[in-house]
Amino acid sequence: MKSVPARHGPASRLLRDVGASSRIEALVIVAVTTILLVRLYLHLTGYPQVGGATLHIAHSLWGGLLMVVALCGLFTFLGRTPFGFGIVAGGIGFGLFLDEIGKFLTKTNDYFYRPSVAVMYVVVLLLLLANRVVHSMRPTTAREDLANAASTAVDGLMHGIAPADRARALAQLRSARAGGAETATVDEIENLLARCAERAPRRAGIGARLGRLVPEWLRGERGTWVAAVALTLFSVSMLVHAALTLDDDLTGGDRDVTVQLQLVGVSATTVLCVAGLVGLRSGRPWSLRLFSAAALITVLFVEVVDFAVAEFGALLNVAVGAAALAVFSNRLGRGDADRPDVSSA
User: How many CB atoms lie under 10 A from the CB of residue 165?
Assistant: First the structure.
């Protein structure tokens, strides 16, 4: 019998953690939420300053401190337990740092420097795009499947293992075995998993928690279509509004960077939504992921720019994007994106 070629991929010291993508997205959500909350607090309190006549303690310093604390926590403790602390502390710190980026771009330390919103937009966009490229451009290798299963086993020996985590690790081992991994190594990791004590299911991730907010009647195909059409109409209306606003600005000789960024953002979401509708109608399994990406861009990018223009009048727009994201996250959390059955036809 011929042996199956090993799906090891290139010999690299960098092996991907399959759970890292969702953790990075969670960190970005915490960072963006921090920016919005800080702006709200400062607006309500009249932009106070911490310090005296000589000193001014900017909150970006606290952001840097929190990011260092998050890194130290991740470096110091074993297992996956520190990840939650790292996401929250690092996300808040990253948000505090980004919020004051205008001060570092101008000679006058201008916190209200309008193009700073554009810089925040680009930084967050590049971070999420890089995250998607690293984790989605190619499937996991046999080495990565083995490493992720072994990591789960080690964490399970220390803290116990939830049923879903055990099932995921066993699936990774089956994938590694099919990819040509050494049978003895796979068997050893399976033995470690068998020795892990059972524990209660871990707390649901952000996507799953959003999904629980969705009413029962919106959790099926009907809800998917309602959210898809609503998000598409919202994106198109925002696109028309941004285009008209930009046209008025250009006619008056003004060039508002935030309007241009908003136009770019809603153009991207509109394209994703239209492609998603086509895929949804024909039962394509990737359509939900397109809509999820469009909703994520709406919440994290378009609305950050919208807040710079409309301030807190943009909260209603955020609610639309967040509601759509909850519906799609619920379907993705149930694995519906892997089956071509989302069409209502």
Answer: 21
pLDDT tens profile 62-120? 999 999 999 999 999 988 888 999 999 999 999 999 988 888 888 888 887 766 776 77
On whether the CB atoms of residues 143 and 8 are closer than 8 A, the answer is: yes
Per-residue tokens: 274 = 């239209």
Q: Which amino acid is at 337?
A: A
Helices H / strands E in the chain, number of each = 14, 0
**Global confidence as pTM:** 0.67
* Whole-number Å distance between alpha carbons of 319 and 327: 12
Under DSSP, the state recorded for 300 is: I
Q: 90: buried, middle or exposed (CB in 10 Å: 19+, 13-18, 0-12)?
A: buried
Name the one residue in this structure whose structure tokens are 């059972």: 198
State whether CATH 3.30.420 applies to domain 207-338.
Answer: no
Query: Which residue's entry shows tokens 């285009």?
Result: 243
Question: How far is it between the farthest Cα atoms of the chain?
Answer: 81
What are the structural domain ranges in the chain? 20-136, 142-203, 207-338
Give 198's strand partners. Answer: 161
Count CA within 13 A, CB hemisphere, residue 64.
7
Q: What residue type is assigned to position 88 of the chain?
A: V
Q: How many CA atoms lie within 13 A of 298 on its CB side?
A: 34
Which of the two residues, 10 and 33, has the higher pLDDT score?
Answer: 33
The Cα–Cα gap between 139 and 201 comes to 27
pLDDT at 258 exceeding the cut of 80: no
Burial 326-339 (b: 16+ CB within 10 A, else e): bbbbbbbbeebbee
